[in-house]
Specification:
By secondary structure, this protein is an alpha/beta fold. Among the domains are: 71 residues, no CATH class; 213 residues, P-loop containing nucleotide triphosphate hydrolases (Rossmann fold). It contains 18 helices and 11 strands. Strands 2-1-11-10-9-3-8-7-4-6-5 form an 11-stranded mixed beta sheet.
Amino acid sequence: MKRATQAVQYMPSGAKRQKGPRLKEANASQVSGSLIQNLSQKLGARLDRTERGGDWGSREPKSLRGPHRLRPAPHRASTMTFAAAYPFITESGLGHEGTYIGTDVFGSGAFSYDPWILYDKGVISGPSIVVIGTVGTGKSMCGKSLVARSITLGRKAAVASDPKGEWVAVANAVGGKVISVGPGRPARVNPLDAGPRSSALSEAQWQAVVRQRRRYLLVALVSLMRQGMPLRPVEHTALDMALTETVAENSNPTLPMVLDHLLNPSKETVGLVGKDGGLAVAHSLRRTVSGDLEGMFDAPSTVAFDADAPMMVMDTSALIGASEQALALAAACGATWLEAAVTNPDGGKRLVVYDEGWRMLADPYMLAKMSEQWRLARTYGIANLLIMHKVADLNEIGDSTSGHRQKALGLLTEADTRIIYRQKHDAMRLTKEALGLSEAECEHVENLPKGVGLWKVGNRSFIVANRVTTDELKVFGTDARML
């Protein structure tokens, strides 16, 4: 806009100077009025042409009308910066297929999840799941919601060991079956049961698989009774000979039968290991027959693992307070039966739950079974679900140089779905390193309310609020005794 020039005024001859200021004011008023009139005409014409729009904008109240148009300079940024600079652009989500979990807090939409569907889409590279959360944050509710609702969609589930008895109500609610073992319980579980046979194996192949499982289980049981002390070569031979002779005499061997052959070795066994070669092994195994574990694992099974049931639970809550060895033995029996079920190609897709994960990871036999199922999950068509309180629980297994601890930590890092509920500040360092959290995610995890968790699915992250119905809350809840 050009600046207006004011005309030069001359004082008439004889005029008094006192009239000068009044004359200047009159001239200035006349020029200003002329300028305002011209400017109004021009702007009015422009406003008419743009129909209430244009440079001045709308005539609506408080519309910040003005004679200038905002023309920001072009800017280039990465998608990471763009997402932070424009927070109203949210994740598209995982889609509606799968099990409904709850609400995507940031996206404000429904959040659904199914490991098999997401694996088929290429979102995740493996179906294993880890759920971590301190007491009372909602991690158990999350696991139960995922399992129970998946069953309604045609999936199956199995809990190898339920030390707190929390999954019994879930199994009953979905029409599953429960095997309860422990002092005073009528059920008997034979660790040497063959289990359900895989339809993909011939009779000879099946017998070879069963024989190998029994050998491995016996070695694990003896090692467990000896506080992890490994067997000497001669003891391995004595135990193998006792099992072979027992199976030759009875197609359904039990631990007392194997113990009898160890205490009374045959001539062939004595020729290989000597008269006392298997004596130490026999004393270790005797505890399962006539010691504090008597009456639970020393007879033919009175129950069986039903591979066709929608859900199977090995209830070991009666063993809490009895002995760690009894709990580990019951879990080993459940894992052996479970292995036979999941390796069957006709078994369908199944969620395998390991609750109170720190107990499982501390058991060398269970850790070996879990590691195998983690590696072969895609082959078996299963999704492993490990539930634990915090990553720092692994410190009870061993220090950073412990091979056992590193193997357990590998299960967490290899899980492509990691669900983290609220963690305390002093536990965040290990959690961040083990689960690959960013600084922003760590800040969220420390302040998450109850029932809300961080879901890391592949390379994507979501804050999800788990939603449950009133009926589900009665089955899934664990706070009944606190209310």
